[in-house]
Amino acid sequence: xxxxxxxxxxxxxxxxxxxxxxxxxxxxxxxxxxxxxxxxxxxxxxxxxxxxxxxxxxxxxxxxxxxxxxxxxxxxxxxxxxxxxxxxxxxxxxxxxxxxxxxxxxxxxxxxxxxxxxxxxxxxxxxxxxxxxxxxxxxxxxxxxxxxxxxxxxxxxxxxxxxxxxxxxxxxxxxxxxxxxxxxxxxxxxxxxxxxxxxxxxxxxxxxxxxxxx
Length: 214
Fold this sequence. Notes:
The protein is of the alpha/beta class. The chain has a domain at 8-76 and 137-213: Sulfite Reductase Hemoprotein, domain 1, CATH 3.30.413. It is built from seven helices and seven strands, in the order E-H-H-E-E-H-E-E-H-E-E-H-H-H. The strands form two sheets. Strands 1-2-3-6-7 form a five-stranded mixed beta sheet. It has a two-stranded antiparallel sheet with strand order 4-5. A hairpin with a 3-residue loop joins strand 4 (105-107) and strand 5 (111-113). Helix 1 (24-37) packs parallel to helix 5. The longest helix is centred in the C-terminal third of the chain and has 18 residues, at 164-181. The N and C termini lie far apart (59 Å).
């Protein structure tokens, strides 16, 4: 019988037309980090009888649709792509506006983007027939603390605008802290709660948003 890994690393489906950011290389690098960290010893120590919900769960989603469910995993990594306007003439067809389910685009003698509503899905530029809107910056959002079970909670957005190296560093930092300071029987999401990862990061992001709007 094949021994179960002490962690669960998942991803959304390959070759999806909705993919905002390609996750394949990042997935391989995460797998390598997790294997090198040898989490088996820690997890077996924390949970003498190991069940599915005890294992740290990390998932990669290539776009904000989140088919791999990053909102309910200990660590969720979600890709995005920001729209970028070019000098190509807009013909006023408003197809991009109709394609945007977040209502982040509107018409005011030209197409206007409301950045605070855009989630970086890419539907607008994929439907633009003129190239007036194209793919811009791509990156990753980091969500922490999601779980199901008797005390379910959605993961909190704690970092935005990460490149792949930034994701790797954050995940390794979190897991090293878990290895060092986890209590017996403490799941990763519970550890993140206790260590105030979610509260501190939420407060910092809120402050950054407030500063950017002032």
